[in-house]
Amino acid sequence: MTRSDQQNKSLHKYCEMLANAFNEAGLDMRKVLKPGVHIPWNKNSVKQHIWKPVQEAMLEKHSTTRLSRDEVSKVYEVLNRHTAEKFGIHVQFPSREQD
Questions:
Q1: Which residues, 6+ apart, have CB-to-CB distance to 41 below 8 Å?
Q2: Please, what's the largest Cα pairwise distance for the chain?
Q3: Is residue 95 assigned to a domain?
Q4: pLDDT digits (tens, 9 = 90+) for 5-43
Q5: Fewer CB within a 10 Å sphere, N or C end of the chain?
Q6: Is residue 29 part of a domain?
């Protein structure tokens, strides 16, 4: 079963929330990915530079539209563990209650 519209919204909301958490912690893209230029995070940069590379490595799927509900959860769990361990940042995956 592919992801639901609500899960799609949650995925994009998570990317936005993680971008804000990185920015608030002073962890711009230079600190996390590339040295040299201060580049603030946004929802799309999180999706392209963080979510999708992990998704592709784990699942060999290039599009988020091809993910099942379980696969979204699996990618989130890996990313959340990584950002918590490496940067001390935990962002809860959005739910309907948070909208």
A1: 18, 19, 20, 22, 23, 28, 29
A2: 42
A3: no
A4: 888 888 899 999 999 998 999 887 776 766 666 778 899
A5: N
A6: yes
Would you say residue 68 has pLDDT above 80? yes
Q: Does residue 92 lie in a domain region?
A: no
pLDDT digits (tens, 9 = 90+) for 80-96: 999 999 999 999 999 87
Residue 96 is assigned to a structural domain of this protein: no
* Domain count of the fold of the chain: 1
Mean pLDDT on 43-55? 93
- Residues facing 2 on adjacent strands: 68
CB 62 within 8 A of CB 52: yes
User: Domain range for residue 49?
Assistant: 5-86
